[in-house]
Write a structure and sequence with these properties.
By secondary structure, the chain is an alpha/beta fold. It is 37% helix and 18% strand. It is built from 9 helices and 11 strands. Helix 4 crosses helix 6 and helix 6 packs across helix 9.
Length: 317
Amino acid sequence: MGQIVAGYATSHAFALIEPEDWDALRVGNRKHYTERTGHVPPDNPGVARETLEGNKTRYQRIRSAHDTVRRHIKEINPDVVIIAGDDQNENLHVDNLPQFAVYVGGDYDTAKRFKSPERHFRSHQPLARDILETGVARGFDLGSLGSFNNNRLVSHAHVQVLDAFLADMPIPTVLLFVNAIHYPATEPARCYALGQLLTDVVRVRPEQERAVIIGSGGLSHFTAGYPWKSYKGSRTYGAISEDFDRNLLAQIEAGDGRKLAELSSFDLMEHGNIELRSWVMVLGALGKVRPDFTVYEPFYRGVMGMGVAMWSNLEAA
């Protein structure tokens, strides 16, 4: 019988890049916003309140959490890593936008994304196929990706995490895609249920595989890629819903991750947490387990509330 022995969740994009690069990246992101909306957004007032030195000091907490995750994965050496993240018109485009999809193809290369270089990674096709077949049998209309264009994974939600945590480890992977930036997007409860299904699939496989799951995305951010046409709230480019983020993490800390499944897509949209769906999937897979830690820092120069969480020692759970 297999088991999910650890879980992790992290923000991506600016959260996996050093603060020295944020200002230049934010300029580029604002340019994309202008191209999509037709007007130049002002920098959020929070930008002026932050300094590079102050951000470097606070970012050490995020970097340290990422270092801990990387060391832990290397230490426990799982048989497979499942990564859940969204796709922002990278591998999936408007001609084909499933709410959920699993990659069932072979080994693949990653494209250069942000600071992540091109790399080669292994695919765990048997587990991916089991997830697809079991999911469909249980009423999840899962899309399947049999290949990537030029055999290249582009979605930064996956590429950055692979580079940050598995770059020097030849561990097979399963890639899950969950829609976040395109409206309408699936409800959090459905993400939680899919996470539960992942645990069931791993448990009944004949091999005694030890799997870990990583959720990539969030927390609160209103950037160029946000579905602004569908957003009806008052927040503008660069906003961060800090109180909402902190409340989410308090519930996770208490082992009440199921409460996040009670959120609606409207809640996520209102508070810039459309990518929280990947975290909710991890919570569904792990159940009512308290994390080893959560870390949170809002960075307006980094245009997001950055969060990291880790759950370990699940083999004894």
